[in-house]
Design goal:
Length: 473
């Protein structure tokens, strides 16, 4: 069966590519640390200030899944590798199944799945310990169940779509876009009467948002914070838009633009087929709505809630997924579309394979050899238990050594782009504790990108001596 073959191939390629485990960034380390705490029975916490504290900045479902897989092997990195590989294979099979429902043609579904799911950015994201791969799964499930509900009006499909959206919200806060997009699709294309459509939309959106709302209410009760973010206006600057432009340009690859142009001509001038136009039309419309709603929610989040939200390949990937999948769903009822699906599949998978071959020799981010063989981490492990640790990369210290570290004082708060009024006083306290031998300050040159923390030069000036625990990584 092609779907099973796609699952096996996708999962195998993804697992083998992550020879050093999935790539790690700052938030990856938080996810894995939270999963470790869940596995150890410490709750959904992370040592953000040197002691275990409730984790509010990230929704819990991805760390929960990792903690469950840790029963296979008590290593969160291995759990992330297994989960990512399974999700990549599952996503390929789901895209195939969706396109098969749209077109009724196995060849079209197969090459369409390779073209959509074999794109370089999606493959890269599935090689990182991020929550996005799990979020993509719920995106695909919601598209399928909403499209099927619009065609059949079966309540079972409505509840399954709501469950998919709810789990998406518990995986990423931006998953609220799934609930809003599903409600919009139902209100616009649901039952015949406007009253019935509005009723169904509310029947969907309430259970879709309820679990995330309960989690945020729990956050407020135990930590006094809904989501680790505060309402403040901070319009994305020119740099953010330039990064977004480069990410979007990467979707239309040099090897693929002729195939895209040719396919657009087929859609505009070609004749449709009689292969299941109802489901295909609904799926394409749901994808289009989801694309617009996600973009709006992402822009709102970056503007009002988190100034540190990057508009890059990672955050924009759902827009590509919704857009490309919707395009293939819409084109599935057109004659002679298989040829262009083949061309796009070849171009996308070729670029992804070329990228993968060039990046397989070492791990990404904190999974790289430099971090795995860090001599500074050995020195940290040897520190006496009572010594307080300050670091510009406290997540890395905790992940590699198991020692809780306190972040260096913030010059400004990145999520709000607001100056920290107590910065100088906090820096003096670090200097005093260091001079008294009560604390050590660890600085990684790899953390220079964290402009919201003091530089090594500023620390040396404040401490009155050269940093003794410093390493280029």
């Amino acid at each position: 069966m092609p779907a099973l073959a796609l699952f096996a191939a996708g999962a195998s390629v993804s697992f083998l590519f992550m020879r050093w485990g999935p790539g790690l960034t700052h938030d990856s380390l938080v996810y894995l640390g939270a999963a470790r705490h869940l596995f150890q029975g410490l709750g959904y916490t992370f040592p953000a200030q040197g002691t275990a504290s409730p984790l509010t900045f990230y929704p819990p479902f991805y760390p929960v899944m990792l903690s469950v897989l840790m029963f296979l092997k008590p290593d969160p990195l291995f759990a992330a590798q297994v989960l990512n590989a399974a999700l990549y294979g599952t996503g390929a099979a789901l895209v195939f199944f969706l396109l098969l429902r749209c077109s009724g043609r196995r060849a079209y579904a197969l090459f369409g799945a390779l073209a959509v799911w074999g794109q370089r950015d999606l493959f890269f994201i599935h090689s990182m310990a991020w929550s996005e791969p799990l979020f993509f799964l719920f995106c695909l499930l919601q598209i399928y169940f909403i499209a099927r509900y619009l065609g059949t009006r079966r309540r079972q499909d409505l509840w399954l779509a709501a469950a998919s959206a709810a789990l998406g919200c518990l995986t990423r806060y931006l998953g609220a876009s799934l609930a809003l997009a599903g409600a919009a699709a139902i209100a616009l294309m649901g039952r015949d009467t406007p009253r019935g459509r509005i009723k169904d939309a509310f029947s969907f959106v309430f259970p879709a948002l309820l679990p995330a709302a309960l989690f945020m209410t729990w956050n407020a009760g135990v930590a006094g914070d809904w989501s680790g973010r505060q309402l403040a206006f901070h319009f994305p600057g020119a740099t953010s838009w330039a990064i977004a432009g480069r990410a979007a340009a990467g979707w239309i690859l040099p090897l693929a633009w002729l195939a895209w142009a040719g396919w657009i001509a087929v859609i505009v001038r070609g004749r449709g087929t009689a292969d299941r136009p109802g489901f295909a039309a609904y799926a394409a419309a749901v994808c289009a709505i989801a694309c617009v709603v996600y973009a709006a929610v992402l822009f709102s989040a970056a503007t009002l809630f988190d100034a540190n939200t990057p508009l890059d390949e990672r955050t924009l990937a759902p827009i590509y997924l919704f857009g490309a999948l919707g395009f293939f769903c819409y084109a599935s009822t057109r004659a002679n579309a298989v040829l262009f699906a083949v061309l796009l599949a070849i171009s996308q998978t070729t670029v992804a394979a070329h990228w993968a071959v060039g990046n397989r020799s070492d791990g990404f981010g904190y999974a790289s050899r430099a971090w795995r063989e860090s001599k500074l981490m050995d020195r940290v492990r040897a520190l006496p238990d009572g010594v307080k640790i300050y670091a510009n990369l406290p997540e890395a210290v905790y992940f590699f050594t198991g020692r809780a570290a306190v972040p260096l004082p913030y010059r400004f708060f990145p999520s709000r782009a607001a100056v920290n009024p107590g910065y100088r006083a906090e820096l003096r306290r670090v200097a005093e504790e260091s001079a008294a031998g009560k604390a050590v300050v660890i600085y990684f040159d790899a953390g220079r990108a964290r402009a919201f923390m003091p530089s090594a030069e500023e620390l040396e000036t404040s401490l009155g001596c050269a940093l003794t625990l410093r390493e280029s990584a």
